[in-house]
Design goal:
Elements lengths: L5 H12 L4 E10 L4 H13 L3 E5 L6 H8 L4 E5 L23 H19 L6 E2 L11 H7 L3 E2 L9 E3 L2 E3 L18 H16 L9 E5 L6 H15 L3 E3 L9
Parallel strand pairs: 1-2, 1-8, 1-9, 2-3, 4-5, 5-7
Antiparallel strand pairs: 6-7
Helix pairs in contact: 1-6
This protein binds zinc ion.
């Protein structure tokens, strides 16, 4: 696959010249158990030196997944909803924690998700909540913080750095999968252009450059092109003026 990285290299050169630094991170969703795709993901993290925040579905996650995650520093487990089940009516977009669901049920699912994830990963768990389909009722921000989470992560540039006291919003911004079409790779030139546009907005302070810039993948559904784009993209970014972001567990005050 021949990708023209020149526009991205030029943008990153402008960052370097301006003395700017990009906080950068990588999130991958939907892990339940060890698979060959998870091995490939872990190998790619090792090869590029960028650790992956692995969004694990707590209800179904296995002990063997926990063992595999604990065996490497390149995987950082985070909480991906509870069961990844849709509770929205057919007329609305899919959501496990949408506004149409009883608040008490959501709060109870959040608590059991955190409990199960802690029992699997112990101190290796990063206290970040990733709502399935990147959708969540804003009324749940305070309950998430009260449950013990220190971050929430969905998709697109955040509006506010903190959605509730103690709960940081750390989103993802670039997704290489063409979900509404082929479910293969989005046209690479389009992805490069989007990455450049997002970086430009940050450089010009139109969006918040203190929010880590997130790359979002889904290892279980990658075809060869998505793996190859990811490999090249992560390498290109690693050569830029970036600071790798890791959401490690915050001690309770
Ligand atoms: Zn998911």
């Amino acid at each position: 696959m021949n990708i023209d990285w020149q526009p991205l290299r030029e943008e990153l050169a402008l960052w370097r010249r301006s003395g700017l630094e990009l906080p950068f991170w990588w999130r991958d969703d939907d892990a339940i158990e060890p698979t060959p795709e998870l091995d490939e993901l872990t190998a790619l993290a090792g090869e590029t030196g960028v650790p992956v925040h692995l969004a694990v579905i707590p209800r179904d996650a296995t002990q063997t997944l926990a063992s595999q995650v604990k065996a490497t520093q390149m995987l950082i487990p985070v909480v991906h909803g509870w069961a990844h089940e849709n509770h929205a009516p057919p007329s609305l977009k899919k959501a496990e924690f949408g506004a149409t669901r009883e608040m008490a049920e959501c709060v109870s699912d959040i608590a059991q998700a955190l409990e199960k994830a802690k029992s699997l990963f112990g101190d290796r768990l990063a206290l970040m909540f990733v709502p399935p389909w990147n959708r969540i009722d804003l009324a749940l921000m305070t309950p998430l913080a009260e449950a013990g989470f220190s971050a929430i992560s969905s998709f697109q540039s955040r509006r506010e750095p903190d959605t509730a006291p103690g709960l940081a919003q750390i989103n993802t911004h670039l997704d290489p999968i063409f979900w509404r079409g082929t479910r293969g790779l989005v046209e690479p030139a389009q992805l490069v252009a989007l990455a450049v546009a997002l970086l430009k907005d940050r450089r010009r302070a139109i969006t918040d450059n203190s929010e880590p810039f997130g790359y979002l993948t889904h290892h279980l559904v990658h075809d060869a092109d998505i793996w190859e784009f990811s490999r090249q993209f992560l390498q290109e970014m690693s050569e830029g003026p970036i600071r790798l972001y890791r959401h490690d567990r915050k001690e309770e005050a």
